[in-house]
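Inverse folding, one chain.
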C-alpha cells in the first residue's frame, strides 16, 4: 500500500524520519513525502527509508494561482536535483517571509500581536499556520485563530504566490514528476 501527500512538521505532527518510521509500523510500503514549496523534508530522510524498508516517492506541494484563486499543485515522483525546480523553490522562502510580515502588519491593524521574529526560525516556508502560532495575544487555539482570521476570505490574507498553475505543472513535468491538484474540494468551495 502507498500513501501519498504526507506533510511533515511544521504542518504535520511528525518529523520526516518519524513519518517514515510510522509508515513502516502501519505497513505502508511507500510514501510520497512533501511540504509546501520546499524539498527540506524529502532531502532530510536520507537512509531512514531503507532502514525501515519504505520506498520514498519524492514530492513537493507548490502554491500557485489560477483564475484569481490559490491552488496547491502536488508534484509526485520528482527529481529533487532538477535545476529548474531548485531555482523556483529557492525563491519561495523569501517571498513567503515577506508575505508573513505583510499579514502580520494587517493583523496588527486589528490589535493582534504577532511575534515576527519567531517566523524567521520557521522550518521550510512560512505559512498562515505559522503566523497563527506566532500571535501572542490570542486566547483561542492557533487552529481556531487560523480559521477565523487567516482563511481565504479574510482581508488580512495576502496572496501567496504569483506562480501560475500552468508554470508549476510545467516545472513538475520537467522534473520528471506527475502533477495533481491538492485539496480539490477545498479549492472548489473557496
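Residues assigned per position:
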Amino acid at each position: 500500500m502507498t500513501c501519498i501527500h504526507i506533510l511533515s512538521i511544521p504542518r504535520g505532527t511528525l518529523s520526516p524520519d518519524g513519518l517514515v518510521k510510522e509508515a513502516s509500523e502501519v505497513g505502508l510500503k511507500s510514501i510520497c513525502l512533501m511540504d509546501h514549496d520546499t524539498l527540506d523534508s524529502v532531502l532530510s530522510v536520507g537512509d531512514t527509508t531503507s532502514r525501515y524498508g519504505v520506498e520514498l516517492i519524492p514530492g513537493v506541494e507548490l502554491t500557485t494561482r489560477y483564475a484569481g484563486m490559490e491552488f496547491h499543485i502536488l508534484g509526485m515522483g520528482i527529481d529533487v536535483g532538477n535545476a529548474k525546480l531548485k531555482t523556483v523553490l529557492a525563491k519561495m522562502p523569501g517571498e513567503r517571509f515577506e508575505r508573513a510580515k505583510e499579514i502580520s502588519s494587517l493583523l496588527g491593524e486589528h490589535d493582534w500581536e504577532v511575534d515576527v521574529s519567531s517566523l524567521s526560525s520557521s522550518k521550510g516556508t512560512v505559512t498562515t499556520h505559522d503566523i497563527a502560532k506566532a500571535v501572542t495575544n490570542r486566547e483561542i487555539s492557533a487552529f481556531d485563530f487560523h480559521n477565523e482570521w487567516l482563511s481565504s476570505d479574510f482581508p488580512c490574507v495576502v496572496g501567496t504566490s504569483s506562480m501560475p498553475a500552468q508554470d508549476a505543472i510545467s516545472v513538475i513535468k520537467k522534473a520528471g514528476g506527475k502533477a495533481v491538484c491538492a485539496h480539490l474540494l477545498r479549492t472548489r468551495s473557496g
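The mean pLDDT is 84. The first helix runs from residue 16 to 25.
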